[in-house]
Amino acid sequence: MSNNVKKDYTDRELAAMSNEELARLGTELDGVTVAYRKDRWPIENDPAEKRAATGVAIWLAISVVAAIAFLGIYIFWPWEFKMLGDEGHLLHTVYTPLLGLTSGLAIISLGMAVVLYVKKFIPEEISVQRRHDGPSEEIDRRTVTALLNDAWSTSTLGRRTTIKGLLGAAGVLFGLVVIAPLGGAIKNPWRAREMDYHGDGTLWTSGWTLQEQGVKLYLARDIGTIAEKHTGETGTHYTTQGISRLVRVRPEDLAAGGMETVFPLAEGDVNDGDRYDPEAVVYENHMHSIHGPRNPVMLIRLRSADADSVIEREGQEDFHYGDYYAFSKICTHIGCPTSLYEAQTNRILCPCHQSQFDALQYGKPVFGPAARALPQLPVTVDEEGYFVANGNFVEPIGAAFWERKS
After folding, report:
1. Residues 218 and 129 in one domain
2. Which of 31, 124, 299, 349 might form a disulfide with 340, Cβ 3.0–4.6 angstroms?
């Protein structure tokens, strides 16, 4: 703070000063020297000024419209997944790009308006300030307020009603564009809904929980089929009628030391083998099972010599079928997929953080950050020779930090 400037003004003297005088005093007290200052539009009603104001207003209007469009698309657009060939597939495909386009346009337009306003209306100024230390005094607070008021008045924003209104609307809507997507991430983990291949929405259920409702669940592999092109009287389109994405697994399908990723398949959705029906429409249900976040299971066939040395978990001695063991594929550390099975060591590996689980010791963690064994699914073989779930998981699936009953 300058030592050459009078600082001992009384409250009456400060109150008697105009805003311009206070602003000038504030610059002096702060050790600021205004070397150059020039108004952008010294002549009133300059046509160029009106054109500049119109340009700012246009950018703000674009931002407002784009933000409203984003909110409308986010709330009302049909976002549900649609397969290729299904009605509404195109609308589903453009949903995410439209969100990106409208949100990006809202943000960019608002930024352009602010930049343009600063360049066109804020007075040109070159100021030099000497740094100082210490707390602010009453005179400093008064003069800083005056400086802010001076900045507001010289920016001419206060008298530009249209721009001010559009700027306020754009700012509010921009905030909604940022905040609105967070609503989709908020979910009550204790709120249950109808049970399906995704469970009932709670963290301790999955597609395998359907077994508790008397649904017979097969262990089925994903064979990767997609919609087929069909040409008929109405033209060419894609259809999934008669197509199966999941097929049931038999014991002979796995070689010793082999592993297969399987998913729950309800008996009513079976469409393979002697139950194949070219008219069946089960593809969508199969995809729901595959996309169930806690559904993937590793079905492992141990070599006979290794199976003889297995250490069973207490209370789960009958969960396996012969040399076949089924463990959840969701790592108990942080929920990554334990996608790797090393047959030589009978280790199940998680590629995310290198946790390792011993398939010969009920999926017990033996290396890495995971601290809980992989949940084991009880399995058996039905009268037709296909693997079925012989019960549900007896402990929650997934990361140990998730809310669990046990």
Report:
1. no
2. 349
